[in-house]
Every structure is written in C-alpha cells, then in structure tokens.
Predict the 3D structure of the following.
Amino acid sequence: MFRTRAIAVATLATTALALSACGSDSLSGGGSSTTPAASSSAKPSVDPALVAKLPAKIKSAGKIVIGTDATYQPNEYLDSDGKTVIGMDVELFDAVAAKFGLKTEWVPSAFDSIILGTQSGKYDIGISSFTVNADREKQATMVSYFKAGTQWVTKKGNPNAIDPENACGKNIAVQKGTVQADVDLPAKNKACTDAGKPEIKVLVDADQGKVTTMVVSGKADAMLVDLPPAIAAVESTEGQLELLGDQYDSAPYGYVLPKDQTDFGGAIVEALKQLEADGTYKNILTKWKTEGGPSPTSP
C-alpha cells in the first residue's frame, strides 16, 4: 500500500459556522492551565470591533475557559510538566484570543463531555480537533478553522497484511467518541457482515496515547486516527509504526460554541482571517508540521 507523508490540508471556513470532532480524553479530573494568548509569536494587536462582540460573561472574566482533550498530539496534549496543554490548536486559538485581548485557560477534559460542558457553561468554548458533522451542528455553533482526514496506522512493515479496504476479522484500535469510532468503523463492519465476512474486532480507549500503544504492542493490528496525530504517532514511536494508504474523508475541524453565540462565532471567523492575513496562521501550522494546501481564506 502507498504510504503517504502528506500533511492535512489547512483550510478556514470564512463565512459558515461549522462543526467537528476528533480526539478523546481520560483526563476529566485533570488540572487546568492558564496562558497568555499568542505566547509563541508576536502578540496580535487587540481589535476593538471584535472585543465589542464578546459575550458579557467572557468580557467580564477577561479570559476564555476552554475544554480540550489533551491526548491528541500534535493538536492538543500535555507538555513535559504533565499539566500545561500545548499544541497546534492551543497556539492557534491563543492567537485568536489575543485579538480579543483575552487570556486562555485550557482545561483537560473527556472528549465526549466537552460539548455538554460548553452547553452547560462549564466551558466557554470546546477546542479538541472536533470534526464537523451534522449531529454536532445541531448541538452547538461551530467555527471551522482547519481540515484533516482519517489515516490508517500499522506496525512498521505491516506484518499482519492489513488492507484498509478489507479489515474484516482484524483487531483495529480507535479512540472513543471520534468519527472513526462512531461512524467509520461501524460502516466498515456492516460491509463485512453484509459480505458474510467476520466483523472487525474494534478496540476502544478514551486516551489516544493508549490506542497508539495497542498497535505498538501488537494488541491491535492497526488503528484509525486523524492524519496529524497519525504522523505524530509514527514520529514519537521512532519508526515502530507507519502510515498505511492515504488519508480519506477529509472534513473541517471546528471550535465548539454555545448554540446561541453566532455573533461571537462570526467574530472568531474575522479574527482567524486577520491571523491568516498577517502570516500568524501559516507560521503556527508550519511550526507544528500541520501546514499544507490553500491558505485559510482561499475560495
């Protein structure tokens, strides 16, 4: 099978508010970290027009509280101190927050509880590589900012001869609550049973790091995950894993906001467009090796 090293295509929805999902976390009891916005690059200037569109609660607090799955390297994960959340998503939204003159507080949370936490007011926003889909759009206002597809990952050399088009009867690992777990593998399993073949043996864990470990240890024959963390898994395991085939079903990632905060969502879109125009967006994606494809505001 062709082994791609291509990076996910970065794209920004400049008008629509969309939805997304990817990632999952077992750190619901973990601590939080508060960081000044745009810490890794020149601090973006505050835009008064954007500040005027802030929800009263956020404006009063002077910060935005963010629920995130901190197991999804390189998008959002814990630094070596075990408590500071870092990653592409973190740095990009810190830059967005700086346009509003806000600090950010990143709270590690179980992936499948983030949307509920945003609805309840526990978090002001959810940012966790959420893939846009219709179900989540019914629950929240979503602002698209990136695009990625699903990638198969197996042990180096593909010793179990995994075929992404026919994994019936194989042990496939996946993270809880992701589109891979909730949509992709169920469809593949139906195709197996409809053809009279054995079902895929799906191994699920809430922590993407543990999903990766299943493949490294041989407990799983392969895993399904978004392309950026797939590449990170290959690199972090020092070549024990490899990408299998091309990424597919590319879809936008989106920030999760309460359903009634469309004005704030529109202001975030404008902040992202400004960051694209001044080069901040591209610089952040380049730093985290998630760059590629058209600029965020390209047609």
